[in-house]
Amino acid sequence: MAFSVRFWGVRGSIACSGPATARYGGNTSSLEVRCGERLLLFDAGTGIRYLGKALNGGAPVDADIFFTHTHFDHVCGLPFFGPFFQPRNRFRLWAGHLGAGMTLKRVMSEFMMAPLFPVPPEVFRASMEYRDFTVGDTLKAGEASLRTVALNHPDGATGYRVDYGGKSLCYLTDNEHVPGAPDKKLLELIHGADLVIYDCMYTDEEYPAYVGWGHSTWQEGVRLCRAAGAKRLVVFHHDPEHDDDLLDGVARDVAKALPGSVVAREGLVLEL
Ligand SMILES: [Zn+2]
Ligand SMILES: [Zn+2]
Q1: Burial class (CB in 10 A: 0-12, 13-18, 19+), 121
Q2: For the whole model, what pTM was predicted?
Q3: Cα-to-centroid distance, 75 and ligand 1 (Å)
């Protein structure tokens, strides 16, 4: 059965529109993963609004939404996701980075609250199930199995490895590396993976100015993939300051460094 990923939002930190980012896209993190009939969504940045438009009008939607974490750029599209407003749809929302005493439901309620937002999550008409888990747990979505790992990011974040039909995709954002000391847990998670979507906010040259900000570089993504025998890197979570011309350069360099690797752009579909 088909296993694919479509990118609806590839930008980090804040959406950025305009001609300089038009080709790769300015929407924040949103992925659509298909495992046969099963629909798995990852993060709910501004890109998810467009995914919602594509899903609306089709068959009833039954999907799992897995959050890396709940920083604003990864959740701000949620209230604008059309399928949440149709009673025939069902969603399970998953988060594993929140510590004791905090739940995904509460984060949602506090983010959709006056005077920050005009309506609460109770406006959604779809069936919404909030599922908190502990990072490190292995989750199931139909025939797909998802291993999870803690990422190095302020307030925590969860990385995922999806295994389905003998193929595997990893989604690791937002994550800061320690130069010269590859994260053993990450290497183990991405071992032999077919596709690794990684936080490549900066270049190695830029990184020293952003130590502690919680992000990594495309060169570190290449080093991790090589060390773990992962096949292809997808450069993801682009800095809003990185325009299309700069990303064209990264695309050339990453394809040379690890053949088959690409820079994520809105609308890109990769089959596993
Ligand atoms: Zn982010
Ligand atoms: Zn973040």
Answers
A1: middle
A2: 0.98
A3: 10
